[in-house]
Amino acid sequence: MIQTNLFAGISERDAAHLMSCLNARTMEYKSDTVVIEEGNKVRMFGVLLSGWGRSYKTDLQGNVITITLLRKGSEIGVLLASRQEQISPVSVAVEKGSRALFISYDSLIGSCSRNCPCHRQLIRNYIGIVAEKGLVLHERLDCLLRPSARSKILAYLKKFPPLSDDGTFTVPLDRNAMAEYLNMDRSALSRELSNMKKDGIIDFHKSRFRLY
């Protein structure tokens, strides 16, 4: 739990105190579960302790569009909980076997029973996460505003710094999720990736990429 951004700088002991003080709830899911439903107001935020999930929208034609993929440590509903009168524009679902911790936003901004520094640190962490998510949304918008499929793909790939001496890096999205992220048709994405590889702009194998 304390290995997440939400609990950065907070000890195990203080985290345990906060969970009790804020009436936090740990949920374990025995099946795929929608934890936030599009069109509803959100009162609680959380963090995925284990497992996988995603946020998504359903368009007028009934197509499901993945917005973000969630993994261990990902926050859930942070932006939405801070705007409690705003209905959620997305749904969030977690997979079978996932565990998540949820905290009421009202408890977060309320007073702690001991007014401890760890509560103030939690609030600072929360604000930092909100700011970071704003930057993530800006990065996606930067991709979507590009005029061509190739420029969208390059804008997305350039977000990832090389992680090895050979200049390769791994993207977190599979082809379907990447197509949805870039608002592209799946086959059009695959076709353009192949063209970019032929043109010597990129190289890739599955989720491993290199930019030239």
Q: Would you write up a description of this structure?
A:
The structure is a single chain. The chain is of the alpha+beta class and 212 residues long. The chain has seven helices and eleven strands. It has helices spanning 12-21, 78-81, 105-109, 117-144, 149-157, 175-181, 186-198; strands at residues 25-28, 33-36, 44-50, 53-58, 64-70, 75-76, 91-94, 99-104, 168-170, 202-205, 208-211. The strands form three sheets. The protein has a four-stranded antiparallel β-sheet with strand order 1-8-3-6. Helix 4 packs antiparallel against helix 5 (149-157) and helix 6 crosses helix 7 (186-198). The radius of gyration is 19 Å and the shape is globular.
